[in-house]
Amino acid sequence: TPIEYSNLYERCWKYEPDERPSIQDVVSTLKTVISKQSEMEGLQNQNPVQSDSIDSLNSSNNFS
């Protein structure tokens, strides 16, 4: 579980209702967390380099 979720849970579980976030704050926090996660996943999925492609390039560029 991302730390942002844990922090949000703790804030929502505060004993004093006045110390809990409003629903608008909860939604805003969740949107931010989801957006960051989606952005990270997108960056990880951008044209990953395959190790066999690198091996192929290395073997084709042997200069003797």
UniProtKB/TrEMBL annotation:
Signal peptide: none annotated. Residues 38-64 are annotated as: Disordered. Residues 51-64 have a biased composition (Low complexity). Gene3D superfamilies: Transferase(Phosphotransferase) domain 1. Residues 38-50 have a biased composition (Polar residues). This is 1652_t:CDS:1. It comes from Funneliformis caledonium.
